[in-house]
Amino acid sequence: MALTTNELFSRIKPSQIREFDELFRSVEGCIPMTIGEPDFDMPENVKRAAIKAIEDNASHYAHTSGEIGVRKAVSEFLKKQYDLHYDPETEIVMTVGATEGLFAAAFGLLNPGDQVIIPSPYFPLYSYAVELNRGECILVDTSDTGFLMTPELLHKTMAENKNVKALFLNYPSNPTGATYTKDELIALADAIKQYDIFVLSDEIYSEITYGEKHTSIATLLRDRTILFQGLRKLLR
């Protein structure tokens, strides 16, 4: 009998974003604007703190949910910036990047055949997380709604699909840059409340927002939202 791997991996294609980025980085003088990464380097105080941690031998196993000091800092940040109140002891988990968090959430939520709504265009990672956990992606074209999920689109999608378990949101969006106003989020949240679905909200670009202050949908749907954030976009 031949050795085999998970058959679902055959469905996962290489990231076109990475392919596109590598192509343009090979062009001399080209300024790449392909990867969702700010152009600043790691702040000096963060570098010094990392160096000191190594010198202090802070290299042993941490708590399963992450160092409590870091979780407390995350809790304080979310409260200050977005009026979100999360208990650092029981409601915040540190992962190796938001990618690990997204996959862990999908693994914890999805059973085979569960459907997940993904507004399109979208970051490829979301479909990978769903498909590798034997779920089904329901892609919703948002090209006629300013690249935003609207209550009308949600109602239509829910009517056409009977096994929806969750809705992926990403705003400000990668790749479109579209984001929601507070009023738009309130309307969408009111629509979501009519269904028994979770919200997987990737708000990692929340601090790279211009104009109206970012509002997290977790302030409107706290008990059914899993919020994803990441330090890479915040360290500026």
Fold and architecture overview:
- By secondary structure, this protein is an alpha/beta fold.
- It has helices at 16-25, 44-55, 68-82, 97-109, 125-131, 151-160, 182-192; strands spanning 115-120, 136-141, 164-170, 198-202, 225-228.
- A five-stranded parallel beta sheet has the order 2-1-3-4-5, sandwiched between helices.
- The model has no long low-confidence stretch (mean pLDDT 91).
Poorly predicted segments: none
User: How large is the count of helical segments?
Assistant: 7
3D shape: globular
Helix percent band: 25-40%
Distance between the termini: 53 Å
Largest sheet: 5 strands, parallel
Question: Quick one: how many beta strands?
Answer: 5
- Over the alpha carbons, how many angstroms does the gyration radius reach? 19 Å
Overall mean pLDDT: 91
Strand order of the largest sheet: 2-1-3-4-5
Strand content: 5-15%
Order of helices and strands: HHHHEHEHEHEE
Query: How would you classify the helix and strand content by structural class?
Result: alpha/beta
